[in-house]
Every structure is written in structure tokens, then in C-alpha cells.
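Human: I wish I could look at a protein chain and see how it folds. This is the protein in question:
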Amino acid sequence: MAREILFNAFAMNCVGHQSPGLWRHPDDRTTDYTSLAYWADLARLLERGKFDALFLADVLGAYDVYGGTPDAALRGGVQVPVNDPMMLVSAMALVTDHLGFGVTANLSYEPPYVFARRLSTLDHLTKGRIGWNIVTGYLDSAARGMGESRQRGHDDRYDVADEFLAVVYKLWQESWDDDAVAADKARGVYADPALVHRVTHRGAHYDVDAIHLAEPSPQRTPVLFQAGSSSKGRDFAARHAECVFVSGPSAKVIAPRVAAIRAAALPYGRGREAIKIFSMMTVIIGVTEAEAQTKLVAQRALASPEGGLVLMSGWTGVDFSQFDLDDEVRHVENDAGRTAMDNITRADPGRTWTVREVAQHVALGGIGPLIVGTPSQVADALEAWVDETDVDGFNLAFTIMPGSFADIVDYLVPELQRRGRYKRAYREGSLRHKLFQDGPRLKVPHPAVRRDKIGIKQEQDAETVTA
């Protein structure tokens, strides 16, 4: 029996997100992004469509690589202004019961002690529906905003990330025993001090000596998302990630990346079901093919090719304003993100891209593929993509908010349900339980759990069974 396809909605606390210029469309509401009602309405819509999670992107710093200034990004509303995604979660959790929330947070500029409390708080408030998309950043403008001349080197950022995770794992997993909270009114004891433990860490980048400020939340450690496909990022995902976000323009590009991530996880004792992989995708749906094509034409007319190049310049660290539109894009390696550049240079040796083609492609849905058609045609394409790439589901970007997601909920979801490829009801429990059907907490052999005494007990039980 074919497995169910998972859906995340891909959005950002800004105007437009992945389709620069579409905020001008008469049906688009992204200019309301500062309104809690806007986000509450989106959460209700996604829960009606049984989406697994809302994946909230974020970026620190402005896109100022294109032309050497943020002017084009500001004029076009290209992911600036951008507000904090974490502030949205509580309001959306209040109006939903099952929808998960994958929130992007850049660890390069966060103290782990404070950050660990923030995520524990959200895990409590959502009753175990929070996930963290682990990123290290890619914009020098963010580093300058934090008082540094430039960001760390690409691979060095992953070394910092490894240590950051070591610290937050200790705080989330080790500091409080599960039975530390007594809440005993008769004795006047809320927490047993003997069951709350001090975390100490002395490392190359972080020094911590403290107890975790939050009591154990439903998941302790949030569901861990990650989105790097470079060799360093792939190894990081293989050890830490539970959900991996991959992006690329074709199945030919995505399939080897998925295989490489799954292969890299095996030496760490993490099999096929340990990591859910989501591919970025944008769909435009019409009741008829003609209606879908009419939507496409109208949206192409408003999409901003310059905005597409602003995004690509930020993602790759290459100023695309310096090139003629008909120039072929050639590979450049630097300390920005590497996946976006690989997508249009090395990932598919049979395809070359001009700057003009990059601008037009990215302007409508970002670097992922765009599928246009009827619900049946789109469902056929998604099923074929899953079969060819071995992904578990999709991070679905939008062109029009909320219309893109409304079309998915009203037309695509019922079509996939009829085919037996999409859930008809949510499973009960935490986000981790919904995704993996295995309880709210991480389990061995994940490195977070090996530090916690429950994990040690799990390892001992596993050894007993093996013996």
C-alpha cells in the first residue's frame, strides 16, 4: 500500500515570501501579515485541510547582495520587512488542535540557555506541537547587524551548530527529571530540588552552568527540522534532523540528495523511517486546465523577475545585477548557502540556466518546481514526484495568500484522499507522534536522547533484547 503524503504549508512573517511581486495581486492578503487575525485564519484553513504543519521560514538580515544595497528588496517587499515568526505560534495554537508549527530560528545569534526556554515555552503552549527548523544563516548583513564584520565560514557554522545542539539537548533532556514537578499543595512543594539537575558545558563556543528554566514540556526536545544539502549539511541532518527540507527545480536534482541523506543517516543507526524528507513545491490549481492556465498568466504578469534575482543573490552570495540577462550562470563557491547555487549549476549536468531563466523561475514560487493544472493533474504530478525521489511529502509554497492554500484544501486534498494517499483524520498526540507514530519524545539512537537517563534505559533495554 502506498504511504500517505505529508503536507507542510510554507510561509513567512512578511509580504510575499517566495513569489516577489504577487503581493500586488487583488486576491492576495500578505500585506495583512502584521495582523493576528490573518495568521489565525490561515491556521484554521490549514487544519481544515489536515496539513501536518505550518513551516515558518525566517531570515536575519536584509537581502542586500543584489546591487550591493537593500534598495531592490525594500522596493519590492522581498522578505523585508520581516517579523519574528515565533510570536505567531501561540495565537495559531489557540485556534487549532492538531496543526504543527515548524519555526525557523538562526542559532548563530542566539544564546542557547535563553533559546532553550523559548522553545520549551512554545512546546507547553502548543501541547507538544512545536518544531524547530535549525539554521545557521547565510547573509553577511545579519552578521553586521550583530556587530560582526561578516558571517562565519560555511562549514564552521555547522561546527558551532553541533555544539549549540549539545547544549540545548542537555537543557531539554537532562536538567529536569520527568517526576521533578510535584505540585503538592499540601506540602508546599512545587518541584523537588533533588530531581532538578545543573547543566554544565565548557566548549569552544559556549559556556553554560545553569538549570533549565522550564519544566519538562510534552516533547522535551521539539521536532527537529533542517534544510542543508551540502556535504556538511547532509552529515548534520543525518545525525540530528527528524525532518529535512530539500529544494530543487526537478526530480532529477532532488532524488540523489534524498538518497544521500538517507545513506548518511545509516551509520548513525537511523533507518528509512527516522527522517521525513519534504520537497519544496508550488502548485497552481484550477477546476479546469484552462482555469489553471488563466491563473498562471495573471500571476506571471505580476511576478517580479528582479525580486527573483534579489532572492537568488541573497541565497548564493552572488550579485546577479552584474550579469547580462542572457549570461549563463556559472558556479561560484563562497560562505553563503550552497544548495541554491548547486541547483542551477552542478546538480543537473544536462541543464544550463541563463540569468533571465533564473529570474523568471524564482519569481513564482522560489527555487522549487511549479505545477499547474487540475486537481487530478497536480495529484498525478505529486505522486510521480514521491515515487521518483523517495520524499515523504512537500513543503507547499504559495503564490497567492490564502487562495493557493484554499485551492489545495478544497480541491487537491480531497483528490489525494480518494486515492488513499492523504490522511482523512489527524492522529492524536504531539507533532512527533503524528509524524512518526512513536510517542512525544525522541528515542535512541538520536544523540539528544543518549544524554538523558530515559535514553540510557532505552539503550539498556535494546541491548537486552538483542542479547
The chain has one domain: 6-298+367-466. The radius of gyration is 22 Å. Residues 455-460, 462-467 have pLDDT under 50 and may be disordered.
